[in-house]
UniProtKB/TrEMBL annotation:
Superkingdom, taxonomy of origin: Bacteria
InterPro entries assigned to the protein according to its UniProt record, in alphabetical order: Met8-like, NAD(P)-bd_dom_sf, Sirohaem_synthase_N
EC number, UniProt record: 1.3.1.76
Gene3D superfamilies: NAD(P)-binding Rossmann-like Domain, Siroheme synthase, domain 2
Signal peptide: none
The protein, known as: precorrin-2 dehydrogenase
Single biological process term from Gene Ontology: siroheme biosynthetic process
């Protein structure tokens, strides 16, 4: 069995991050980049949270704080608290990340390599973040720049507007151009 590899559109959805340390900060940044509305609940928060567009509630996190959240990250340094919050979050049907135990998560965080809207996500399917990170560094050298991607995207739209044999020909030309540029056999 493998994990479901998918990209989720959760822009505008509420998320709660329990904990305010480095792990919570990293996860919060990832959620913000995907447009979620993040509330951070923790007695102590890393100073970098003050420059982020998040709501900070400075106290210990209770299951009631998770109400309405579509995504819950339990990243406190108290495993029992993380377990309890995750159990409550699962019950309400949220996507759940348990920072201390991936087996208790329905949501795992990959290493992400991006160029504009293009994203490559690496999951090892286990807990081996150094490998995900190292692979990400190799992969980043392979990504085409965003101007090139934009141009290919426009070319594809133009090809799809064509009718008859011109359409297939335009798509074939584009496919060949992309494959050659990416260094795979045309
Ligand atoms: C299961 C998973 C979490 C999940 O998805 O739930 C997980 C688990 C754990 N990570 C630990 C440590 C660190 N992780 C990082 C960094 C990253 N970790 C990420 C993902 C994942 N980490 C998921 C599996 C991914 C996979 O393998 O596919 C990345 C890719 C994405 C992200 O986190 O946003 C991001 C790279 C970002 C990049 O690309 O740069 C660093 C920092 C660094 O290395 O610089 C440290 C050390 C410093 C620190 O403590 O922060 C420990 C504690 C081990 C211990 O006991 O010390 C555990 C728990 C355990 O192993 O039990
Ligand atoms: N998945 C990953 O990438 C990693 C996961 N971990 C796990 O994540 C946990 C957190 O790591 P760090 O951020 O480095 O910890 P940290 O010690 O820097 O921060 C812990 C945070 O939890 C908060 N906290 C404690 N009790 C709380 C409660 N009842 N409610 C809300 N917040 C509470 C504290 O105020 C603090 O902000 C670790 O204990 C470990 O289990 C650790 C390293 C990497």
């Amino acid at each position: 069995m493998s994990l479901l590899a998918a990209f989720l559109n959760l822009s505008g959805q509420p998320a709660v991050v329990a904990g305010g340390g480095r792990v919570a900060l990293r996860r919060t940044q990832t959620l913000l980049e995907a447009g979620l509305q993040v509330t951070v609940v923790a007695p102590q928060v890393h100073p970098e949270f003050s420059v982020l567009p998040v709501t900070v509630v400075q106290r210990s996190c209770e299951p009631a704080d998770l109400k309405d959240a579509q995504v819950v990250v339990a990243a406190t340094n108290d495993p029992a608290v993380n377990d309890r919050l995750c159990a409550a979050a699962h019950q309400q049907g949220a996507l759940v990340n348990h920072a201390g135990d991936a087996a208790l998560s329905t949501l795992r965080f990959p290493a992400v390599i991006s160029s504009g809207d293009l994203q490559v996500a690496v999951s090892t399917g286990r807990e081996l973040p150094m490998l995900a990170q190292a692979l990400g560094e190799r992969i980043s050298a392979l990504l085409p720049d965003s101007t090139t991607v934009e141009q290919w995207s426009r070319q594809r739209e133009e090809a799809l507007r064509e009718t008859g044999p011109g359409r297939e020909l335009a798509l074939q030309t584009l496919r060949k151009d992309i494959r050659t540029t990416m260094g795979v056999p045309a």
